[in-house]
Structure formats: C-alpha cells, structure tokens
Amino acid sequence: MEHARKCGASERHACHLVRQPRGTQRYQPTQRHDEDALTRAIITLADRYGRYGYRRITIKLREAGWNVGKDRVERIWRREGLKVPQKQKPRGRLWLNDGSCVRLRPQHQNHVWSYDFVSTFTHDGRIVRMLNLIDEHARECLAIHVRRRINSSNLIDALADAMIEHGIPEYIRSDNGPEFVAKELRKWLARTGAATLYIEPGSPWESGYCESFNSKLRDEFLNGEIFYSLKVAQVLAERWRSTTTPNAHTLRWDIDLQHQRHGKSRLHWSMEKWKANNASHFSTPPTAAASYLTHLPRYTNNLAGTNYRAGQPP
Fold first, then answer.
1. How does pLDDT run across 258-287, given as a tens digit for each residue?
2. pTM, to two decimals
3. Fewer Cβ atoms within 10 Å of its own Cβ: the N or the C terminal residue of the chain?
4. Helices 152-166 and 271-278, interaxial angle, to 10°?
C-alpha cells in the first residue's frame, strides 16, 4: 500500500488494486485504559494456577471483580504466549451410549456419592494415601482424607464426618477394593440407609466422575507439590480443596457447571437439622444415632478378594 502511494496512486485506487477495504486501511487500533492491569492480573493468575486455561482464568478474574469476557481474556492469553489447552473431543455419557454399561445416574444432591483412593509420597519416600469423597450430582468434593494408611474403620470415620455435615446419601459408588467391601463397613452403611454401588472389576470408567476428579487432583495439585511431612500434605490438600473454587469446601471440576452455578449457595447441615431429617434412617433415637456416628467402634476385619455387588446383603 505504501509503495502504491509513493508511485502517485490515490488511496482509493491503491485499495482497489490490493482488494482491501478502505476502512481496514484507515483503522487505528485502540487500547483500553485497563489493558495493562488486566494483562498483569492474567499473568499472575496463570502463574498461580499453572494448569488452568483461559476459561477458568476468566472465572477467577470475575471472582476478583473484573467485568471481562472469555474472548478478551483469550486474546490477551494468546498475545502473551500463554498455554492454550487443546480442545478435547466431546465424549458421550455411559447412560446414553448403546451397548455401554448401565449405571445409576445422579438425579439430585446427596443421591449418589463416590469415593476412591489416590496415592502419593512424602519427601522421604513414604507413601501417603488420600481418600477423595465427592457428590456426583453437585460435582463437589466433600472431603479429602489424608493418612499414611486407610482401612475400613478410617473410612467409617470419614463418611460419618461427611454425613453429619452434608446429610446421608442414597447410594455410595466405589470399586471393589478390600477397604470398600469390608463387612463391617457395609453393615454400617446399611444402618445409615445408604446403599452400595460396586463397579465391575477392571472398569474404572463406570466411576467416571471420581476418576475425572482424581485426574484433576493429580494434575493440578499433586504433581506440583513436595510434601515434607504428613501434616503438610493434610494442610495443603485441604487448602487446595477449599480455595480452588469460590465456595469453600467445594471443588467443581466441570467448567460448564461453574458457569451455570456460579454464585449459588450450597446447603449447610447443622447437627440439629441432621438429627431431625435423618432420624428415620436409624433404628435408634436421633441422639443415639448421632452418638453412633461420632463415637464409632474400631473395626479391623477386611474381606480381601471378595466380589460383592450392589444389592447383596453383607
């Protein structure tokens, strides 16, 4: 264009020769007054949440008070050379695909919980086990229980604490690990009124919500931390669980659900309400039921190698 102008051609004639609109030639880029501050905020969040894409960074910016859309964040994200996650091919749900396994679909909060173990190591090479408990419908992490070893009695402790705070679920989904099929654990769950749902051996995709959460936990938290003691692991795990999303004690790893439910308050169960609402699940009075949950007997009888399925009596 400059060469054509130097040769004596008018702007109109030069734009006609190169087939460029005159508005494009005369366009002067503008920059908003808050562009530099927004760029610094995006880089700061990208440094803090290294595994987040621009969509999740947009959510964090809105939580901090920025009135910004994802398209503007994406433009700055690409301009600064930050990582842009590749688009994943959408996957169908197991309950919609022909020929897939049949599993119970969560319909409401406290309908289906699921739990599973994730293992890591402290700095000295000793193993640390994490019990992740999630609500499949709300897609919330209810608890991350961190110990060196976790047996069936520890499972009962963790479940009792979660039930006191969040209520009693109708079903609990898990694999067939010896801790999950322990006879005393299944008897205790039967007393609370929660039914067990065991997936088929070697089929982790049947517990897709929990497996997805475990993957996010390892990718965003475990792979970036060094634990020098068990206490450090417990503190950091609880901090990550409570600060990953705006609602404390909540972890929603589905981005679309974050947009749909952003700012929606969750139900907090007090002990008195828990007694009144869940007394029918127990054959004992509410006060005795609460005492049973808070003062649990210790069991060590695990049934390793069993193949119990949902619906079978303990």
1. 444 444 333 333 344 444 555 544 444 444
2. 0.57
3. N
4. 100
